[in-house]
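Fold it.
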Amino acid sequence: MALGGDLYQFGPFRLDQVAGILYHGAEPTMLGQRAVSLLRLLLQNAGVPVSKDALVEAGWGELAVADNNLTVQIAALRRVLANAANAESWIETLPRRGYRYVGPAVATNVPASRIALALTLPEKPSVAVLPFSNLSGDPQQEYFADGMVDDIITGLARINWLFVIARNSTFTYKGRAVDVKQVGSELGVRYVIEGSVRKAGGSVRVTGQMIDASTGAHVWAERYDRSSEDIFALQDEIALSAVGAIAPSMRKAEIERVRRKRPESLDAYDLVLQAQPDVDTGMPAQVIRALALLERAIALEPAYALAHGNAAMCHHCLFLRAGLQEVNRTASIRHARWAIVHGQDDALALTWAGFSIGMDAHDRAAAFTALEAALAISPSSALTYILGSVILGWGGKAERAIEWSEKGMRLSPFDSWTWAAFDAQAMSHLLRGRYEEACRAAYKSVQANQAHSITYVQLAAALAKLGRLDGARAAAARVRELQPGFRYSRQFAGVRCAPALAETLGSALRDAGLPE
């Protein structure tokens, strides 16, 4: 029976049809596109013979090819399966008829984030806070429930001895029935917090429970009924209760670290919550929409650090992806400086601000002063490490960039920003002449985010350095499609690319056919 779907999982392998990549675990294989096309057809008809004619049509279309071309591609496919998992026997030859897939069962549309990762538990207590269910009956209140969880995560992350998974990973479970033990295994944490929010009129009911994922035992459960006027105190109370359940003997001083300054205006707070998803996309159309909300929040509360930090990130995205206009660069730096002035206790605001200062003001020393301040407040801030790795990568600090990217991805294995961490790794490996590693990282970056032109820039460069010019030119074509005005010399100047990296990337991109 034929299968449908963009993703096929079989054994330790995953075939992504959209990207045309076969993965072994989380690692992309080097399987060619014709062999990928053949594998796709075999998986679609798992357990059923597929004729040679059908396979030739899948791999070569209407081209007339000799039988040995099919034999060569099947051999290449078997070789990749054998090298990765000793699984060449999964493709059965049917003499004079064709071939048949006889390996493990094939699952379709398995999300990439559900690939099993062998994550060991950190030495210190570890926790993941899953999205709370919105029981209000009003879809427009989703942002309110999500904001509750964001504040709980932020509060917990301020505890130095606690390992906290970032919200971008935990929110991949939003809207799904989950097995807490599986969540603990996939995220590499001991404790999982889940709950629900019901907001009606001026009242809010929040329920929460914490479970030991290794045993399934309930560690803590509570219900809170409050007026919405007390929402900030309520968020603090839930975070404090969770931390206290993990370590009842913790010092009072550690508990107090969870408390932080709150914006005085609930309206401003709501506006920032509503803007955040669009900010996180990093795409011009969406960040323009987010800026309208953020400007309203700043008008209501001019010293709101997180609103300024988000606005800085929006203007950074517009600067790099919408024409390198000086007005956006200036606005990015201005909002970043206000975020630093007003956000001395806000790790996220400092992270956005540090990134803008490093990338747009080209002051990397000041950027890392802000990022290190963010980590002092919130040692589990994955985004701080990920964005720091990008600054380090463009600055030519290859080994440190890789170190920071790996720290960020460990704190948030399924983060929506992992593409940026892989991007930092790709340029760093390129700078060090490790072209195969650069290619693998670039493929992962493309897989994680196919909407950003910079991911294809790194892929084009890596493929060119490996002499795979057809692939490099295809990636370059995708860059021009996503960013028609792209000129690599202007892009390098925009981020003040380290001279050695600019030389390495520039020569490769020239070979790939991208304009200087």
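The radius of gyration is 25 Å.
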